[in-house]
Design a protein that fits this description.
The complex is a heterodimer of chains A (233) and B (419).
Chain A lengths: L1 E8 L7 E8 L5 E5 L6 H9 L6 E6 L2 E2 L5 H11 E4 L11 H6 L6 H6 L5 H11 L4 H4 L9 H13 L5 E5 L7 H18 L2 E6 L10 E4 H4 E4 L8
Helix pairs in contact in A: 7-8
Chain B lengths: L1 H13 L1 H34 L5 E5 L3 H8 L10 E2 H9 L3 E13 L2 E6 L2 H5 L1 E2 L3 E2 L2 E4 L7 E4 L1 H7 L6 E2 L2 E2 L14 E7 L9 E5 H7 L16 H6 L6 E2 L1 E6 L5 H9 L6 E4 L1 H42 L3 H9 L4 H42 L10 H32 L6
Parallel strand pairs in B: 4-12, 8-11
Antiparallel strand pairs in B: 1-14, 1-15, 2-13, 3-4, 3-14, 5-6, 7-11, 8-12, 9-11
The chains are: A alpha/beta (233), B alpha+beta (419).
Family (chain A): Belongs to the ABC transporter superfamily.
Protein name (chain A): Putative ABC transport system ATP-binding protein
Keywords (chain A): ATP-binding, Nucleotide-binding, Transport
């Protein structure tokens, strides 16, 4: 993953803009990106995920400059190559755990093939048992009925299924208490290590730093300017 | 495909709102189909009222007016025609049978019809059904009277009861022919036509009622006694209209022309089917108005559906963001919202169609008894299918509105929605 001379500014968010000269992560690296709220973390993640496109610069993920892709290709690229985990509310509440885990595969045929094609459901059940959720009890359970901790763990499986190259996690532990935070990070690290993916996790909690290969302060890679107001993007 | 599955699951999850929306659409579709069915029912019931009659003859008037007063007993005849003319018609070689009616009197709001016993055997209703007596027999005596089914039921009359016939029309007759009561000799089985709301006496009886009324004013002093009337020669002087059955339908238009150009009296002869067509061209305006109203009811339901989807949209931004995060494009989001609208449209329409048929099956017999309108339960024809198809199409088109909004939201929000 490699960002070069990226510039982006929100049209409506009080003139908020972000500029990144260079920010690269090696394949298989686990990086903790630290920064206070309002420092442009979410904007950076949206850029990386291809949800928003920069006005200038190059965002290369696994060698593809996603800033140059047409929007539909970019959506497809995201489905195939990126797993996203949010702070909370990661799951669609009316779908079962299993359906939530398998959801990205519907938009990404290659990833579905990597997840075993028709065997993907069986694989998802195996993954469920590995994170301590009995598939017989939880596979068919509506995601909205799970506890927050359970939901976050299921969200990890959704991000990991079909082994996308890059996992982006946006403060995934902030809604969890201490004990669950550690359990969550343990599950995440273990599963990412198993599939050999790259992890970029944003957090303001520096106590997690020992669990990562490298910690990067956001201020050191990104310059944020605001024309007026203090609304974070 | 994941999108229709997602749409279905999302709707199932939303329960109450969705059920109410579908219910609204169902009700409106029910109304749409119901109005159409009633329209068809009214038409076929009207048409069925004059089954088997080739020509109707009356004093010169418009064909619709003649149909209305002679068959449906709506409105009054402009004039009667003479008994001599009637007898000439009856003797015409093309005429197989003739039934006269003499109108103008009433009993407690129901019309009294002077006629001949052939009335009960020759006139047909609804696909050539003959009249049937529930009780008793046609009038044999001068003061016998035969009641239609509704008359007997509404007024609680039974065989052998004595009733008084009023002169003129209206439910409260000022001048009742109180000294000459009639005896109920027969009660007809229900026909679902205006026959049910009529009382039938012989032509001679009509004359008998009017003995002493020749001057036109209320008779004074003791009237002519019943015995004296029985001794009179009560030959009818006029009749209001006559129903004709012809030996061959080929002669219908020839005879119609002959009657319309009758030299001694100004007559009109109408072919019931053609007169009905003329009537439909008048009622079509009302029918169209009613249909426009029902179409607007359907539109209201669909707009309600759009409002529901739009109202839910804000709560679903997180859901859309998740879908975007896992790789759904804004087009997928658009498709999801349209699919939800289509699902609700289809469910509502099918439910409404079923509801309409269920209502017809449940209420049909009661409507037939009360209004004489037989509602048909036929399998949905091309017209119903087209109407239902259009409702679903309208729902799909309406679904484009929230779909477009969600599409734009998902472009703007990306995955950065905070809840």
């Amino acid at each position: 993953m490699d960002l070069e001379a990226v510039g982006f500014s929100w049209r409506r968010s009080g003139g908020f803009s972000i500029a990144i000269d260079r920010f690269a992560i090696e394949k298989g690296e686990r990086v903790l990106l630290a920064g206070p709220s309002g420092s442009g973390k979410s904007t950076l993640l949206s850029l990386l995920a291809g949800i928003i496109t920069p006005q200038q610069g190059r965002i290369a993920i696994a060698g593809t400059d996603i800033a140059r892709l047409r929007p539909s290709r970019r959506d497809r690229f995201r489905a195939e190559n990126i797993g996203l985990i949010f702070q909370s509310f990661n799951l669609i509440p009316y779908l079962s755990c299993l359906d939530n885990i398998l959801l990205p595969l519907h938009f990404a045929p290659e990833r579905r093939a990597r997840a075993g094609g028709t065997e993907a459901a069986a694989q998802a059940r195996t993954l469920l048992s590995r994170i301590g959720l009995d598939p017989d009890l939880y596979a068919g359970e509506a995601a909205g009925r799970l506890s927050v901790g359970q939901q976050q763990r299921v969200a990890v499986l959704r991000a990991l299924i079909g082994a996308p190259g890059l996992i982006i996690a946006d403060e995934p532990t902030s809604a969890l208490d201490r004990a669950h935070q550690d359990a969550f990070v343990a599950v995440l690290s273990e599963e990412i290590a198993r599939m050999g993916g790259t992890l970029l996790m944003v957090s303001h909690d520096m106590s997690l730093a020992p669990l990562f290969d490298r910690t990067v302060a956001l201020e050191s890679v990104a310059r944020v300017t605001r024309a007026r107001g203090d609304r974070a993007a | 495909m994941i999108i229709p599955r997602l749409a279905l699951k999302s709707l199932l999850n939303r329960g109450g709102m969705v059920v109410l929306t579908i219910f609204c659409i169902a009700l409106s579709v029910m109304l749409l189909i119901g109005v159409d069915k009633v329209r068809e029912g009214v038409r076929s019931s009207f048409a069925g009222t004059v089954s088997g009659t080739d020509l109707i003859v009356g004093a010169r008037s418009g064909s619709v007016q003649l149909m209305l007063y002679s068959v449906f007993r709506i409105g009054d005849a402009p004039n009667n025609f003479t008994w001599a003319t009637y007898q000439e018609l009856a003797a015409h070689p093309d005429v197989a049978w003739i039934v006269p009616i003499s109108l103008g009197d009433s009993h407690r709001g129901f019309r009294v019809v002077g006629t001949t016993p052939d009335y009960f055997t020759q006139l047909r209703f609804r696909d050539d059904n003959a009249m049937r007596f529930a009780e008793g027999a046609p009038f044999a005596d001068l003061f016998d009277i035969v009641l239609g089914a509704s008359v007997a039921e509404t007024l609680g009359y039974r065989l052998g009861d004595e009733i008084v016939v009023g002169h003129g029309l209206g439910s409260v007759s000022l001048a009742e022919h109180a000294n000459r009561p009639f005896r109920v000799s027969g009660i007809l089985a229900p026909t679902g036509t205006p026959i049910d709301k009529s009382l039938h006496v012989s032509l001679a009886a009509i004359e008998a009622i009017h003995v002493d009324w020749e001057s036109g004013g209320v008779p004074t002093g003791p009237g002519t006694s019943v015995e004296a009337i029985r001794d009179m020669a009560l030959e009818p002087r006029t009749v209001t209209a006559a129903f004709l059955g012809l030996r061959s339908p080929i002669s219908t238009f020839t005879l119609q022309r002959v009657i319309n150009q009758y030299p001694d009296e100004a007559l009109s002869a109408v072919v019931p089917g053609l007169a009905l067509l003329e009537l439909w061209s008048i009622t079509e305006i009302i029918e169209t108005g009613l249909q426009i109203v029902t179409v607007f009811v359907v539109l209201t339901a669909i707009i309600g559906m759009v409002a529901t989807i739009l109202a839910m949209l804000n709560d679903r931004r997180r859901e859309m963001a998740i879908l975007r995060a896992v790789g759904a494009s804004p087009r997928h989001i658009f498709g999801l919202l349209v699919a939800e609208a289509v699902f609700m449209g289809v469910c509502g329409t099918l439910l409404g169609g079923l509801g309409a048929y269920a209502a017809i099956a449940l209420l049909g017999p009661a409507i037939d008894r009360s209004f004489g309108i037989a509602l048909e339960i036929a399998a949905p024809g091309a017209q119903e299918a087209a109407m239902m198809g259009l409702v679903i199409l309208a729902a799909a088109l309406a679904g484009l509105v929230p779909a477009f909004k969600a599409y734009r939201n998902s472009l703007a929000d990306g995955v950065a929605v905070r809840n």
